[in-house]
TrEMBL record, chain A:
Organism domain of life: Bacteria
Protein name: Tripartite tricarboxylate transporter TctB family protein
Transmembrane segments: 7-25, 45-62, 83-103, 109-127, 134-152
Keywords for this protein: Membrane, Transmembrane, Transmembrane helix
Species annotation: Vreelandella arcis
Domain (DUF1468): residue spans on this chain: 11-157
Regions annotated as coiled coil: none
UniProtKB/TrEMBL annotation, chain B:
Membrane-traversing stretches: 6-33, 45-66, 120-138, 145-178, 198-220, 253-275, 323-344, 351-369, 381-402, 409-439, 459-481
Domain of life: Bacteria
Protein name in the entry: Putative tricarboxylic transport membrane protein
Record lineage: Bacteria, Pseudomonadati, Pseudomonadota, Gammaproteobacteria, Oceanospirillales
Entry keyword set: Membrane, Transmembrane, Transmembrane helix
Alphabetized PANTHER family for the sequence: TRICARBOXYLIC TRANSPORT PROTEIN
Domain spans labelled DUF112: 19-433
Native species: Vreelandella arcis
Signal peptide start and end residues: none
Classification via InterPro entries: DUF112_TM (IPR002823)
Amino acid sequence: MGITRGVMVTVLFGIVLFVMIPIYVPRPSFIPGFAPPPDMWPRVVSILGMVLGLLLLGLSLSKTTEAIADPDAASEIRGDTPLGTLLVRFGFAVLAFAVFVVAVELLGFLLACILLLGAVLVLTGYWRHKWISLSVAVALPLLLYLFFSSALNTRFPAGTLLRALGL
Amino acid sequence: MLNDLLIAFQAVATIENFLIMAAGIWGGVIIGAIPGMTGTMAVTLALPFTFYMQPIPSILLLVALYKGSTYGGSVSAILIKTPGTASAACTTLDGYPLARQGKAGKALNMALYSSCTGDFISNISLIFIAAPLALLALRIGPPEYFMLMVFALTMVSGVSGRSLILGLVSACLGLLLATVGEDMYGSFRFDLTMDMRGGLAVAPVLIGLFAIPELLKIVVFRNTDTQKAMQLGDNRVTREEFRRSLKSMLKGSMIGVIMGAIPGIGPSAAAFSSYGEAQRSSKNGENFGKGEVEGIAASESANNGCCGSTMIPLLALGVPGDVITGVMLGAFMIHGMTPGPMLFETNLHEVYMLFIGMLFSSVLLFGAGKATMRFFSHISRIPPGLMAPIVLILCLFGIFSISNSMYDVIVLLAMGVFGFFMFLLAIPAAPFLIAFILGPMLEENLRRALAISRGDPSILISSPITWLFASLAVFAIVITIRQQLKKAKS
């Protein structure tokens, strides 16, 4: 775990330093006075991050210093569940988020929230209490929608599909 | 000063402010009492709503939530041996054994008395320390500010996780994310989409980082067990028990005040230090861990003793000492106020209103705690599998209402997934958030200092104050590494 983490941190900051900063942080042609350029700070932070990543990697290679770099919090709660199952659950959760973002465009904010809440209640395992889950999934977004749109005047997206259907 | 405080008293003492503070305390106690729901989450969830409020009531609401949740954390610690907040973990040691003896009511009452005492002492300290410290801070310039923030970040990185290096990695990630958008001279950085030109707002980043990973943990690990709550049983704290605990309560309050005022230390460390000190100095030291009310008094007075004093560095120096004050800094900024020494010149009336409001909230905490004690045993049993999805929907509505834009909602969800990865890699979230909030100020002060010195970095160690903060940062790093090496060897 420690080695993987060290590599991941180093690679992440490396990509920022060598790929993203040259493309996405352009230096202006004129900088007033002695002001440092806009890429100075992101470069300093990225270099520091890379050094820390390499340090994590180095510490993980030695038995005596491994414990400093690798407290391994996640493995404590992972228990006996196979990694594949955990990845599938995580994948479904991310998929639910992605579908929600698309559904807001098509179905509007309220319906998308009802669907997301239902999906997440299934994913947390609470769906076995079907009636409570169903009531919460419908009533909570509806109440919040009414509260925000009437009391705070928030204008939520209506959804292109529903608008096309004249709803 | 007294006259200013009296004027502020009149301004704060309105029905509207009392209702807001009562709602904050009540909501905080309820959220704190639910295992897995933290004070940070309570404050972050309320942040979008403060957007529509006046500045002082909005800060008072957040402060009330903070105080309420700090006390509320002890409820589940006592009743179901699951601390609602990390700072209440120490309360479990004596609170739960006392509940098993059929004296849960006594434990809850002692926790309430100690919390209110610690909170009140902490507020008084804030009133008398913040203003003189701000006057002192007026004399410091960009290099000193830069080093002060470096020191604060080092402290937060060192104590918020189990590894200093991972804390620093987290801070670097936060600093990097804070550079997205327009910089102080108008250059755009990391503008992958047009929306990103405006940067990332504080609210979706911090709510995403703290609320959504909790949901993902439940979805992925399905760790949703709830324990049966104890009955309240014996309710009264006798005069003898109160007298016996008073010394530990006062000592704990002072420990909380001191440790809360130092950036990064926070209520958990204060509670354990106070508990250790009480056990060492008490005649009943051998009863600690077996249901001793003095143990509850020590830990609860210390963790609530931090509530007011964590505001000292925030108000006087503009440096948040922990995540919650980081959120409050965001709330101040939303309302056009910048915490720091200038706040005492430009918004003195508002600062005094805040002080008075905080004193009122101590009294309200006592009232809310007393009134809702019986209700608590039910709250502690709300299953996380139901609560976490509800929180997600609250976050989505809250965040969308701030900006009326799906961009912030996408940032919220993306930060949630990112926060979950950080959790998997054991990278603590607190340094990330503090760095994200301090990042723009840190960079601005560095660039100003370098512009003043014509690019010479030695300006960062050119005055006694910069030396002091630099030495403290190095000292903190050395001490933390030594402790971690010691732990690793053992």
